[in-house]
């Protein structure tokens, strides 16, 4: 049967020239057949493409979490952990976490396995696949042939379908036949598995708020930060917030304010909205507590170390956006970080909420009894799982076994890193104090040696002076003796000898 019935010729199966720069990544067949999800398979291919070829024999890759999430079309980069664990569970990769930038940031190192791990019992080739699935081995080939025969039989006279341009089919490589049936975009793809929910509706996935719409759909969505155009009052608001920031933070940010930071400032001020804040309220009750309570201790030492080393430290725009983020914990519109922005007193709603949570934890949660499964007829209602929340008040997904939200986990990790840094700084301070004490002892020893040397020199000088005086006195006595002897031997010359020194 001719291949023209399917839109290609028998003589050629390549519609793009051979010099076309096609890039590819080798992915083992056993990874395709190991049972991992489609997203896991895509993540493996993405990691394989990132292998550093400059290290022979080591299949190591270092892509960032955000890069993997962008390749997998994930809205939250933290969802990459699910597929990372999935690939590690089947032995396709091995990974380890490492930290950099003074322990403030983390990344993952991936070892991408090419051969199946030891003890792998799964499928390794298409032959194994068709042997394990005999019902699809021959049916697929016969269905393609039968479709080709039906397409050819439907043409007039049973001949070939007339084509233009020297017999070439105009639908080759992406062309559309005028009689071809187009797929319905509302119907699911028959080649995709239907047992898993789509990526946009997976459980635990963050959904966009209902008040925002995509581009081209109207609504009041904020413009992209790369195209943000601020009016003069908005620029004045952003500058007013910058002027009230702590001196160290403002110096670390530099003179330029990026568009995303300006958008975060305006969103935090929420002008004309129920949770509107003045510039003073925003800085005093939201930015300053978070800066003094956490970020100052985490950012300033590393930033100053980079600056003192002669390098250009990275401006902390990300932490500033985090400090500006509005995280309401109760239903009060005047509450910021458990403080009433008007009275500057602790928020009563937050205190009552904390008391309720404490009482609930002390009393314990009673799980409702699961109704017995019906023996027949209409099934009964599903088991209702109680609402779960973290100790900080953030809700937890229902399928989560851990009782800690991601914000608390990051806070705990940051506290561990902070404790390690504090111990390191304490050790460095102790070492510096020890070195200072040793220097003081050495200076004291030098001073003592100098004093002893001065004393010895003074004693030597005194001894030399005594010897000189003794020699002078002896010389005078000898001169007097010689004069006396000369006068006794030469009495006639004694008168002349007393007028000057001795003649000898």
What's the structural blueprint in terms of helices and strands?
Elements: H1 29-32, H2 38-49, E1 60-61, H3 65-71, H4 80-89, E2 93-100, E3 105-112, H5 126-132, H6 134-153, H7 232-244, H8 247-253, H9 259-269, H10 279-308, H11 317-324, E4 335-336, E5 339-340, H12 348-363, H13 406-489, H14 494-497
Antiparallel strand pairs: 1-3, 2-3, 4-5
Helix pairs in contact: 2-4, 7-10, 9-11, 10-11
Q: How would you sum up this structure, described in words?
A:
This protein is mainly alpha-helical. Helices cover 46% and strands 4% of the residues. It is built from 14 helices and five strands. It has helices at 29-32, 38-49, 65-71, 80-89, 126-132, 134-153, 232-244, 247-253, 259-269, 279-308, 317-324, 348-363, 406-489, 494-497, and strands at 60-61, 93-100, 105-112, 335-336, 339-340. The strands form two sheets. Strands 1-3-2 form a three-stranded antiparallel sheet, covered by helices on one side. A hairpin with a 4-residue loop joins strand 2 and strand 3. Helix 2 packs across helix 4, helix 7 crosses helix 10 and helix 9 packs parallel to helix 11. The longest helix has 84 residues, at 406-489. The N and C termini lie far apart (150 Å). Mean pLDDT is 75; it is low at 139-145 and 156-225.
